[in-house]
Amino acid sequence: MAKKSYAVTVAGGGSTFTPGIALMLLEEHDRFPVDKICFYDNDPERQATVAKACEIYFHENAPEVEFSYTTDPEEAFTGIDFVLAHIRVGKYAMRRLDERIPLKYGVLGQETCGPGGIAYGMRSIGGVLEILDYMEKYSPDAWMLNYSNPAAIVAEATRRLRPNSKILNICDMPVDLMGKMADMCGLNTWRDLTVGYYGLNHFGWWDRIYDKDGNDLMPQIKEHMAANGYADALSETNQHVDESWVHTFQKARDVYALDPETIPNTYLKYYLFPDYVVAGSDPNYTRADEVIAGREKNVFGACKDIIAKGTSKDCGFEADAHATYIVDLACALAENTMERFLLIVPNEGCVENFDRTAMVEVPCIVGKNGYEKICQGSIPQFQKGMMEQQVSVEKLTVSAWIDHSYQELWQALTLSKTVPSASVAKQILDDLIEANKDYWPELH
Ligand code: NAD
Ligand code: G6P
Ligand code: MN
Asked: What ligand has the least distance to the C-alpha of 148?
């Protein structure tokens, strides 16, 4: 029997996404009733700004919800049903370095891809495991829905180190892209699509796309991709609107041209066109700077405004429409809806001709007892070759974290398709070690 209402802890309470998620939970109250929301963060000041503003909002708009915020794990994780986790270990200051350091050596700087993603992974693993352990200690029946990045590396770490934990790793990029695909076909929502998809996180391809009646939508989508990539298609989520994202959506046309049989994830541009990405980058102003000047400024500005005025009326707070997939996922677990989601899960034969131990992103059916993978069969040589290289990068990164191994991390960087040689890999690695000394295990 499903419960009447749920207790949710948001880990990363100080995240720029927290107000949007909190408001979304209120909006979705009818299908996912939440009576208790707690924010948890390890940065009390950053969290307090977001939480005090949300407290005012909740008081004015949903006084029935018990709201609290804390930096104490026992308080945060006791008596809960779900943890929604979106932490960023090292915050934007470290994201900025992840993006800038590789660029010094002519290598692209990106949050989750290439050396930046590896560096972020080495910081994230410990933070995500810590939250998972708190959840299991204080609420052993709870589920953790994790979208802390880099999800591919974090997922591999939880597979290796916490194989029996109730954690689902999920990414929002496919949701946004499927919203755009729906729009290309004159449909209103990604929920109307049934897809075949395989890959790693931020590294995947759609090979079948149907509408609710089973009609093939690939021809229409291919036509749009060949002409415009994902540009000029609107997702109902209205996510990723900055200029740099618009370029990414356009560039998907060139990514698509390389294999016109499949529809690519936008992140493949970093692996297939790294020279183009580097040429378009400003080493003194990367995406982290854009986010600091944009999303962070807006969200924290609105929070401070609410706190100063003591009211959330006309405050510019908005529910995060795209995050409703998280409620879908929580509902599927709580109420056994058996809906389909793209999740990051152990392969175990789902992609037949690929490493059984890889964490792959594939469609799954989700219900009360977790997920069941939908077999994707054999994949083509091109995708298999790319995935084998990239999954090795991710596995070596996790091995380096576990073994405290300089050698394995150097191998991981060298193997990344974004890095031209072992000598460049070593230079970047040595800089990253220096920059991350407060966060990484000490390497030998
Ligand atoms: P942010 O820096 O604004 O927020 C992250 C928060 O996490 C900060 O308040 C920070 O203090 C906190 N934090 C860091 N380490 C912690 C720890 N060990 N324990 C508890 N709290 C900790 O970042 P953001 O831009 O809002 O993004 C948050 C996260 O969500 C990032 O990992 C980002 O990559 C991820 N994200 C993922 C997806 C996806 O598709 N999977 C989509 C959007 C964002
Ligand atoms: C997409 C990805 C996320 C990533 C985000 C970056 O949504 O799926 O994994 O964190 O983009 O967005 P940002 O605006 O922070 O560059
Ligand atoms: Mn993602």
From this structure: 1
Distance CA 126, CA 121 (A): 9
Q: How far is CA 373 from CA 148, 218, 261, 370, in A?
A: 22, 22, 23, 10
Q: Report DSSP letters for 380-443, one per residue.
A: -HHHHHHHHHHHHHHHHHHHHHHHT-HHHHHHHHHHSTT---HHHHHHHHHHHHHHTTTTSPPP
Q: How far is CA 292 from CA 16, 48, 247, 296, in A?
A: 10, 18, 19, 5
Do 31 and 106 meet the contact criterion of CB atoms below 8 Å apart? no
Per the CB < 8 A criterion, the answer to whether 130 and 138 are in contact is: no
Closest CA relative to residue 292, chosen from 117, 94, 432: 94
Tokens at residue 360, please? Answer: 């792959």
CA–centroid distance, 426 to ligand 3, in Å, is: 27
3-state SS class at 250: helix
**What predicted TM-score, i.e. pTM, was given to this entire model?**
0.98
- Establish whether 431 is a catalytic residue: no
* Average of per-residue pLDDT values in the chain: 97
* Tokens read off for 189: 């929502």
328 given a catalytic annotation: no
Q: At 257, phi and psi to the nearest 5? A: -60, -30
pLDDT digits (tens, 9 = 90+) for 134-145: 999 999 999 999
Residues with CB under 6 A from ligand 2: 111, 149, 171-173, 287, 291
Helix (H) or strand (E) holding 203: strand 203-210
The tokens describing 403, both together, are 């073994």
Determine the pLDDT at residue 1: 45
Query: What are the tens digits of pLDDT across the range 343-377?
Result: 999 999 999 999 999 999 999 999 999 999 999 99
Nearest alpha carbon, ligand 1 atom 1: 15
* Per-residue pLDDT, 321: 86
